């Protein structure tokens, strides 16, 4: 019944839309014309033609011709634009003869139009904050293997590669492999799997064939985009099927792992197809499919990271060695008379699946109800495998994301609804897998395999017996011989039994296996309206808002949700006013946004900016920005009992009835009490020792989790120093508070305080009798820190058609008086730079691009290595491509390389070393667009 109801409603809805549109478009007029280069008088293919104030538009053909049909009751104005040319507005006085438009070549990219800086169209030079853009031509000509990887060449960007299918973008510090401080939108849709709490790079994003533009807004953008845009936003736009019609096909093959000591060279394949068609400028659809597969990079850093072993004694010969990319050897015991010993681990290469893929399917229907009103329905399905470095190395295996989008878009407004639903499928934790396999084969001294719960202790008992000379055939005091004896029966990688146990354990979710279960979903509704016309264009006024609902489900493996899904919601509303002054030389903009999450107090995030255009070539900007970040679903609702400690999210409802925040001691004070009691008990007796030391106990005062905050100021300049040299520079300073972190407390059975307000002796006795439970709580640190930085970008165009670009970024972190344990890791190099060189027509139909990236070394701090710093060495890499256009075949041949010099580079401690990728691609485009 429910399905039939929805079907009936949709049928009536589309019938209503058709009726309106048929009436609205009954009277129309047609304009024809051509677009030319004013110097060469050659036709310009791919120029965009749009009716001013309407959604109606088209593109010029290979001969430069266009035809556009529209209903217009007043003066008809056409806006014509093309990459590399200055946009032009043409007033059409008669429609009975073709019009001729000559576009003037642009002197720089500063004529570009951007949307992301203010959520409205504006010239790049007059954007109130720093913004970077890749247009369709830049995307097509990037030397990197994919357009997403090419974002790394924009100034201010930090890109971290966890694997072939997963790259993470960050701006302005506090980088991580899973960046929940950075927002990523595709056509206005947040494409994060809700259970992750961050976007998984472009794994569930756009194919290269369907990517039209990329805009990057570094820094706090919460005033316009809400809580996820704490440290920046990446806005990607797909190709409109009305504008980009026809068939496009990409065939890309390549090779990686060249000179890799871990494996032989491997094939890389990335294929895509796109088809779009429009009917009478009223209805259009598009279909996209892409599939990439290859052999992932191997994580093979076997550095001994056991911090309890002196640095000069660490290494492969250390009996307690804990190799970074080996799992199972984290299990360590201190054996009497022997010292620390770790279990034998399994190398990551035997536990994960390095054969990775990414499948992306997309379709969209566009219907123009009137020339100023368009309805859109889009569905995206993506599935793939990646290796991700988080608190562990995870095999995101067959993970899928399904998205639906409904949108009603006018010339001055939009209303949008979308949903995201994830399924973890066969994903698993490689570290847990190594530990669990280690618990399947251990034998006792009689040769019998013991149960998993006894395996670790039995293994250490075998080791101690062999080392202590209790086994006649094993020499005493020999760590190598003792380990070999303890490892008898060990499952060997590649064996049938090893593979059987691997498959079994990855299929078990929760603490008894390695599998991961997440079937979390969210739906989101948002809208925006431009009220400028209501104010008679005296000021530009924008208002909007959103509502989001989360539905979490892990079946008790991560959250306390065996009884049903956990749901919560958040909403926000914003307004922005922009006013031109001084004959349009000064533009003032004020924005404000209020957001409220069900579990937290509401937050107001303002932004104010000024742009002063001294001349048409010199533009100065200044802004004050604020941002905040809501805790992720895991930050709020994780409830995982791992035996000695329970990991507990900081949402008030998550710990209701557990009496943890209300009745617990700090871990440090418990340690102090235990040390004091231990030192006195043999001298004065247990009761007196308890009385003497109980006041060392301190009641915890852990607040429930709250959003992180940032206040930031920025100044910048964009302009033309000469007719061929453009510059963009900025400086920012930000202050951060409320960093989300973990703290450990212990809850006794008795009240922590007595009637006198002092530590309760009964609670102290609970500690001594082990009648306590330890909790790792998610909360916030009150400490303040600051970060600052500057970027400088130069672009020079020669008269011969060469374009040379160079940019540099300086970033600095000031911990001030904060406790280092209370601060998020900055994880950002002080200096990095990019240099690019290209020519689109170095010879007829031949072009090339080079991009060189360098950054200095820095310390990486992450949960994978228990927040212990690991060094990321300085590196540089060179991407290159040469392309040859074949107009008769409507095909472009591209030969390129990411990391041409094949240096194996680590970008995050514990992640793999990434080498070169060499590729050749053929792209057929039925309506291939290039400049003649």
TrEMBL record:
Protein name (record): TonB-dependent receptor
Q: What is its main location?
A: membrane
Q: Which SUPFAM superfamilies match?
A: Carboxypeptidase regulatory domain-like, Porins
Q: Which family does it belong to?
A: Belongs to the TonB-dependent receptor family.
What keywords appear on the UniProt entry?
A: Cell outer membrane, Membrane, Receptor, Signal, TonB box, Transmembrane, Transmembrane beta strand, Transport
Q: Domain TonB-dependent receptor-like beta-barrel: where?
A: 427-900
Species:
Spirosoma soli
Query: Cross-referenced InterPro entries, in alphabetical order?
Result: Beta-barrel_TonB, Beta-barrel_TonB_sf, CarboxyPept-like_regulatory, Plug_dom, Plug_dom_sf, TonB-dep_rcpt-like
Q: Where is the TonB-dependent receptor plug domain?
A: 126-233
Q: How does it sit in the membrane?
A: Multi-pass membrane protein
Is Plastid found in the keyword set? Answer: no
The residues the entry assigns to the signal sequence are: 1-26
Coiled-coil features, chain-numbered ranges = none
Q: Where in the cell is it found?
A: Cell outer membrane
């Amino acid at each position: 019944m429910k399905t039939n109801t929805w079907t009936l409603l949709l049928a009536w809805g589309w019938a209503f839309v058709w009726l309106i549109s048929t009436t609205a478009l009954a009277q129309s007029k047609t304009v024809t014309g051509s677009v030319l280069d004013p110097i060469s008088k050659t036709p310009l293919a791919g120029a965009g033609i749009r009716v001013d104030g309407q959604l109606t538009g088209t593109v010029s053909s290979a001969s430069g011709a266009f035809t556009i049909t529209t209903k217009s009751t007043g003066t008809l104005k056409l806006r014509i634009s093309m990459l590399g040319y200055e946009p032009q507005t043409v007033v059409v006085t008669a429609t009975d003869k073709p019009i001729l438009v000559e576009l003037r070549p642009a002197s720089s990219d500063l004529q570009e139009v951007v949307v992301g800086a203010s959520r409205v169209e504006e010239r790049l030079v007059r954007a109130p904050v720093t913004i970077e853009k890749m247009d369709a031509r830049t995307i097509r000509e990037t030397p990197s293997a994919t357009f997403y990887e090419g974002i790394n060449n924009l100034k201010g960007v930090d890109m971290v590669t966890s694997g072939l299918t997963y790259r993470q973008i960050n701006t302005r510090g506090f980088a991580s492999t899973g960046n929940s401080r950075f927002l990523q939108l595709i056509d206005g849709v947040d494409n994060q799997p809700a259970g992750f709490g961050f976007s998984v790079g472009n794994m569930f994003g756009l194919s290269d064939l369907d990517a039209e533009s990329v805009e990057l807004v570094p820094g706090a953008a919460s005033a316009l985009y809400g809580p996820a845009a704490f440290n920046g936003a990446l806005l990607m736009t797909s190709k409109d099927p009305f504008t980009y019609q026809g068939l496009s096909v990409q065939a890309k093959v390549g090779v990686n792992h060249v000179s890799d000591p871990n494996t032989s060279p491997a094939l890389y394949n990335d294929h895509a197809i796109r088809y779009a068609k429009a009917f009478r400028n009223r209805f259009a659809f598009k279909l996209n499919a892409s599939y990439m597969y290859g052999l992932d990079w191997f994580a093979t850093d076997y550095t001994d990271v056991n911090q309890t072993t002196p640095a000069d004694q660490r290494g492969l010969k250390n009996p307690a060695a804990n190799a970074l990319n080996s799992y199972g050897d984290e299990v360590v015991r201190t054996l009497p008379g022997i010292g620390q010993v770790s279990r034998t681990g399994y190398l990551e290469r035997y536990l994960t699946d390095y054969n990775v893929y990414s499948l992306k399917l997309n379709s969209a229907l566009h219907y123009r109800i009137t020339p100023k009103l368009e309805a859109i329905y889009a569905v995206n399905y993506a599935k793939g495998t990646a290796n991700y470095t988080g608190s562990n190395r995870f095999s995101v295996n067959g993970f899928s994301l399904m998205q639906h989008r409904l949108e009603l878009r006018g010339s001055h407004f939009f209303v949008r609804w979308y949903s995201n639903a994830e399924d973890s499928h066969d994903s698993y934790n490689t570290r847990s897998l190594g530990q669990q396999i280690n618990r399947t084969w251990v034998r006792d001294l009689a040769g019998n395999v013991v149960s998993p719960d006894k395996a670790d202790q039995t293994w250490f008992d075998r080791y101690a017996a062999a080392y202590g000379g209790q086994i006649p055939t094993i020499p005493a005091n020999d760590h190598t011989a003792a380990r070999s004896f303890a490892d008898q029966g060990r499952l060997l990688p590649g064996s049938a039994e090893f593979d059987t146990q691997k498959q079994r354990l990855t299929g078990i979710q929760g603490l008894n296996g390695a599998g991961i279960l997440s079937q979390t979903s969210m739906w989101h509704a948002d809208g925006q309206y431009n009220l400028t016309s209501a104010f008679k264009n005296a000021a530009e006024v924008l208002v909007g808002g959103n509502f989001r609902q989360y539905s979490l489900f892990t079946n008790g493996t991560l959250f306390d949700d065996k009884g049903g899904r956990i749901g919560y919601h958040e909403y926000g509303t914003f307004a922005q006013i922009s006013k031109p002054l001084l004959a349009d030389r000064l533009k003032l903009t004020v924005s404000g946004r209020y957001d409220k999450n069900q579990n937290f107090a509401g937050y107001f995030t303002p932004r104010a900016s000024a742009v002063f255009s001294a001349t048409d070539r010199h533009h100065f900007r200044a802004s004050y920005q604020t941002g905040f970040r809501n805790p992720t679903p895991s930050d709020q609702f994780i409830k995982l009992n791992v035996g000695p400690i329970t990991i507990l999210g900081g949402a008030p409802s998550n710990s209701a009835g557990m009496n943890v925040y209300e009745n617990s001691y700090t871990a440090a004070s418990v340690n102090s009490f235990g040390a004091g009691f231990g030192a006195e008990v043999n001298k004065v007796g247990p009761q007196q020792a308890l009385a003497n030391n109980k006041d060392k106990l301190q009641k915890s005062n852990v607040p429930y989790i709250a959003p992180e905050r940032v206040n930031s100021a920025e100044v910048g300049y964009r302009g033309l120093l000469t007719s061929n040299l453009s510059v963009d520079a900025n400086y920012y300073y930000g202050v951060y508070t409320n960093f989300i972190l973990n703290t450990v407390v212990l809850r006794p059975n008795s009240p922590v305080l007595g009637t006198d307000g002092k530590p309760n002796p009964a609670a102290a006795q609970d500690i001594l009798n082990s009648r306590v439970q330890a909790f790792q709580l998610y909360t916030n640190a009150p400490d303040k820190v600051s970060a600052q930085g500057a970027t400088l970008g130069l672009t020079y165009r020669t008269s011969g058609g060469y374009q040379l670009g160079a940019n540099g970024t300086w970033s600095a972190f000031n911990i001030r008086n904060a406790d280092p344990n209370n601060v998020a890791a900055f994880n950002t190099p002080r200096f990095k730079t990019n240099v690019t060189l290209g020519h689109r027509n170095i010879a007829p139909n031949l072009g090339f691009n080079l991009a060189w990236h360098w950054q200095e070394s820095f310390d990486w701090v992450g949960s994978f290595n228990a927040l212990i710093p690991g060094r990321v060495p300085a590196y540089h890499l060179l991407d290159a491509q040469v392309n040859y256009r074949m107009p008769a075949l409507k095909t472009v041949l591209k030969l390129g390389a990411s990391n041409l010099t094949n240096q194996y580079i680590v970008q995050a401690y514990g992640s793999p070393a990434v080498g070169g990728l060499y590729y050749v691609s053929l792209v057929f485009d039925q309506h291939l667009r290039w400049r003649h």
